[in-house]
Design a protein that fits this description.
By secondary structure, the chain is an alpha/beta fold. The chain is built from 13 helices and 13 strands. Residues 339-364 are annotated as: Disordered.
Length: 364
């Protein structure tokens, strides 16, 4: 099982000081957080993609390529690659390039994003969001698997005899997760292709997450990729920790109360009771995260959101120390207990390459 962090790259004022970091400071902070993630033994760093203030990660492959050059083991991913407003040809080329530069230490997560105005900025209609996601990914899937593509669809110009370059490393396409909070069509899409399904798991209660994951698992089996238990599932989550739970609540409350995504709404206590957000001690984080398995089954990837709402870099790095030293080692051990032997590990370039070679050997 993989553990890591994901960021949305928001530039938010620190409510305790009133200071807003510059875009450069926030970008550099995201890099520092990724490097810290590898230092403390995490497996994955994932960045979002946004094209509007107050967010800065408009070019994920640029950032991930830079981080790849400064790390050795970390898997580099996206927490959203906008399959709706990006050209699938450009996605194919950009991420294949990253795959080569990172020696395969990468994958990506497709999503529709959460900012409506982005659609017209890129000449798209938000009312076609699901249709764009379905058609664009169908083309991307082919571009990575066919050397020459003839294609015609609804939302972009046709392709005739087109070859995307560079070709995927070792002729193995990057592994794709499909991220969604509430759209069953995206769970269906992930199941159809036998790809991974990532549930954001931040804002919604457990029963909603359970329904989405079960839909994906059942459809994954329907399409003949394996049993429901063998489907590839990832979950998000939010945590804020201190050694003493009362200290965590006291320190995080001013950030929670004015956070752009959930401030001025339910109280911190209501939100932690009704969603996966955990604010407390490392042991409380362990207990709540382990409970995810009760409604999601044995899954492959757990990512935490830790650098949002104006939290200063120093605080985030302290959080990563706690996560790496006190939380993740216990989660690795506990999640491994009673894990059925036929539940697969999280896909990596090495495992996908080994599978491809076994299939080639079987055909020979």
């Amino acid at each position: 099982m993989q553990f890591g962090i994901f960021t949305v790259g928001d530039v938010t004022p620190d409510p305790t000081t009133g200071r807003t970091p510059t875009e450069r400071e926030r970008i550099k902070a995201m890099v520092a957080i990724a490097l810290k993630a590898e230092e403390v033994g995490l497996d994955v760093f994932a960045t979002g993609e946004h094209h509007n203030p107050p967010f800065v990660p408009s070019s994920p492959t640029t950032m991930l390529g830079y981080i790849a050059a400064r790390t050795e083991k970390l898997v580099l991913s996206t927490s959203t690659t906008l399959i709706t407003t990006n050209d699938p040809v450009k996605i194919a080329e950009d991420f294949a390039m990253l795959q080569h530069l990172a020696d395969g230490r990468m994958d990506l997560m497709m999503g529709r994003g959460n900012t409506g105005p982005v659609y017209p900025w890129f000449g798209k209609d938000i009312r076609q969001g699901i249709n764009l996601a379905v058609e664009n990914y169908a083309l991307l899937h082919r571009l990575w698997r066919e050397d020459v593509v003839d294609w015609e669809g609804t939302f972009r110009t046709p392709l005739q005899g087109f070859t995307s370059t560079p070709r995927p490393l070792d002729d193995v396409p990057p592994f794709v997760w499909h991220g969604s909070i509430r759209s069953p069509e995206i769970a269906e899409q992930a199941a159809y292709y036998g790809d991974g399904f990532f549930h954001n798991n931040i804002f919604w209660p457990a029963d909603h997450t359970k329904r989405m994951v079960e839909l994906y698992r059942n459809r994954y089996a329907h399409y003949g990729h394996g049993t429901p238990e063998q489907a590839i599932v990832g979950l998000g989550g939010q945590v804020f920790m201190r050694k003493n739970s009362q200290d965590a609540v006291r320190e995080f409350r001013p950030y929670f109360d004015v956070a752009p995504v959930y401030g001025h709404g339910p109280s911190l206590e209501e939100f932690t009771a009704q969603t996966p957000l955990t604010v407390g001690s490392p042991q409380q984080v362990i207990e709540k995260t382990l409970a995810f398995r009760d409604y999601a089954g044995d899954y492959q990837r757990q990512l935490f959101l830790m650098d949002h709402a104006g939290l200063p870099l120093k605080t985030v790095l302290e959080q990563l120390d706690l996560l790496g030293e006190e939380v993740v080692p216990v989660l690795r051990e506990e999640f491994a207990k009673n894990r059925p032997a036929d539940v697969p590990d999280a896909p990596t370039h090495s495992s996908l390459l080994a599978t491809a070679r076994r299939k080639e050997g079987a055909r020979a």
